[in-house]
Write a structure and sequence with these properties.
With 274 residues, the chain is mostly helical. Helices cover 77% and strands 0% of the residues. Helix 10 runs antiparallel to helix 13.
Length: 274
């Protein structure tokens, strides 16, 4: 995969000329687009692929389940610190030069995590993996925006990004609110699907809005800064929800998340100029 990224070099490094990305065939058939989507997949599995293993990790490593949130915190912390720096370097040197070494570091550290038998060592390896992942999501999104730049206008005319973002927080709040009332595991598919709908319409709408607002030459920097705040939420979330859990159990965690979603909805809807 890395060799393909190198040989298809021009798309990775040239954000200025948008006309070159206007293809006659659909963009999803472009090899560069498919590779970048694979990079996005790699970036997001660093959290979603680990959390299902938490119960077994707690048992095998003999650790307090409350400490498992640190595996997410140390993974997302590098993107909080390195996000703006990565964006500036990518705008100056090119995104490919940043992404390829990051993929190697992510893969090596992630493989080493599988052989860790000590929780402290696992935390250090997750930190290294997080350093590798810090650039993957934000820069991949920047490349996707660059590739599909000619199509963003049509999407924006059909759907209002601000309305979609507002709607996404309603879906988030509804999903978190109904989770505690679900009586069996199959009913959890209802809030899970609701949350997924919110994520599906909200996340790409935020990227579209940023692409419209950001100067093209600073697009990677802006997207990376956005990724920094995304990482801030992922880093602080487990730490804050420990207090909610201690206050009223697992239900309090979901009710607190509902409150955050409602708060952000009103802030975005009525306190921004977009």
């Amino acid at each position: 995969m890395f060799s393909i990224i190198y040989t298809q070099g021009s798309i990775m490094n040239s954000p200025e000329d948008n006309s070159q990305f206007e293809r006659q065939r659909p963009v999803y058939l472009e090899i560069n687009f498919q590779i970048i989507c694979a990079v996005v997949l790699i970036a997001v599995i660093g959290v979603s692929s680990v959390t299902p293993a938490f119960p077994k990790l707690a048992k095998d490593l003999n650790i307090n389940p409350k400490n498992l949130g640190l595996l997410i915190t140390v993974y997302t912390l590098p993107s909080l610190i390195l996000g703006p720096i990565i964006g500036v370097l990518a705008d100056r040197w090119g995104r490919k030069i940043i992404i390829v070494p990051s993929l190697f570091l992510f893969g090596i550290a992630g493989t080493a995590c599988a052989f860790a038998r000590d929780f402290n060592l696992l935390l250090w390896l997750r930190l290294l993996q997080g350093i590798g992942a810090a650039s993957l999501l934000s820069l991949s999104i920047t490349l996707i925006i660059t590739i599909t730049a000619s199509q963003l206008g049509r999407l924006a005319r059909r759907f209002s990004a601000t309305n979609l973002i507002s709607a996404s927080y309603i879906f988030y709040a509804l999903a978190m609110l109904i989770v505690p009332s679900m009586s069996n595991i199959w009913l959890l598919l209802i809030p899970s699907t609701t949350f997924g709908i919110g994520l599906g319409i909200g996340f790409p709408s935020i990227q579209t809005l940023l692409a419209d607002l950001a100067p093209r030459e600073y697009l990677a920097t802006i997207i990376s800064i956005n990724g920094t705040f995304f990482g801030l939420g992922q880093t602080l979330g487990p730490l804050l929800m420990v207090y909610a859990f201690g206050f009223g159990g697992i239900s309090s965690v979901f009710y607190a998340a509902t409150g955050f979603a409602v708060l952000i909805f009103f802030v975005f809807r009525y306190c921004t100029c977009v």
